[in-house]
Structure formats: structure tokens, C-alpha cells
Amino acid sequence: MARYSAGTVDCPGSPKSVRIVVVGDKGTGKSSLIVAAASDSFPPNVPPVLPDTNLPLEFFPDGVPVTIVDTSSRYITSRSI
């Protein structure tokens, strides 16, 4: 049974962290979306692929850390490796 305390839920098996992977076609704004979510602003220049980005814990009342993973839209096959 869940235990409720100060707005949080302590459930066995609940995630200790969450990773969100953002995928999409080239030039669709994946990296810009991540920067905007993490900083609450929209900078004019964003690199094509970002390192893993941790969202501020205060964004989430349950305190579960959220990491957003940016991806390259470049299609890679085993032949090109």
C-alpha cells in the first residue's frame, strides 16, 4: 500500500529516476525543446545535440530526478560503423 506524506508517494517499485529520450527528424527543434524545458527560456542558438540534461528537481513535486537525453537525427547503420 502506498504511503502518502507531504504530497509525495512512497511506493515499492516506484522509479528512482526517469530518463526521457527525445527523437525526431533533423531540424525539428529537439534540442531547443530540451533547453527551453530546462531553463524556462528560449535561446536563439542551441547546439545540434546536447549532453544529457537534468531538469531542476523543483519542477516535480515527487522529487524524482528527470534526465532528458537528446539524440542525433543522423541515421547510423552497422555498415557505417
UniProtKB/TrEMBL annotation:
It comes from Brassica carinata. This is Uncharacterized protein. SUPFAM superfamilies: P-loop containing nucleoside triphosphate hydrolases. InterPro entries: P-loop_NTPase. The lineage of its organism: Eukaryota, Viridiplantae, Streptophyta, Embryophyta, Tracheophyta.
